Amino acid sequence: MSRHIKTLINQLVQAAKARGISQAQLAELVGVTAVGLSKAKSRGDIRASTLEALATELDLELALVPRRSKEEATEAIKAGAFFRTGITPQKKDL
User: Fold this and answer.
1) How much is the pLDDT for 19?
2) What pTM was computed for the model?
3) Using an 8 Å Cβ cutoff, are 11 and 39 in contact?
4) N or C: which end of the chain has fewer CB within 10 A?
5) Rounded distance, CA 21 to CA 29, Å?
6) What value does the mean pLDDT take over residues 83-89?
7) Which of these, 71, 68, 13, lies nearest to 42 by C-alpha position?
8) What distances in angstroms separate CA 28 from CA 37, 42, 90, one per listed residue?
9) Residue 76: is its pLDDT beyond 80?
10) Average of per-residue pLDDT across 20-42
């Protein structure tokens, strides 16, 4: 099905593991079966409300962002302009 949904579910499961929560425990916390979450993960098919519940349980927020944002951020990082503050650093006297 959708590789993007599979990626989202995998990211949520990885975030849970980083917090010491197994996939089965995460499923139980949001009221789905471990088998159901496993099937959703392999199929890339899950209700938006379940996806949101998984994220909320992990203190994460789902968001849609324009695709170009990532590309623009990458270019800004490469150019050294990602954290521009408008403040010009002063030279130190040596």
Assistant:
1) 95
2) 0.69
3) no
4) C
5) 10
6) 50
7) 13
8) 10, 18, 55
9) no
10) 96
Where do the structural domains in the chain lie, given as residue ranges?
3-57
Average pLDDT over residues 32-41: 95
**Arithmetic mean of pLDDT over the chain:** 83
**Pairwise CA distance, residues 44 & 36, whole Å:** 12
Cβ atoms within 10 Å of 28's Cβ, excluding its own:
14
Task: List the structure tokens of 65.
Answer: 């962002």
81 CB-contact burial (10 Å; exposed 0-12 / middle 13-18 / buried 19+)? exposed
What pLDDT is recorded for position 87? 45
SS (H, E, C) the chain: CCHHHHHHHHHHHHHHHHCCCCHHHHHHHHCCCHHHHHHHHHHCCCCHHHHHHHHHHCCCCCCCCCHHHHHHHHHHHHHCCCCCCCCCCCCCCC
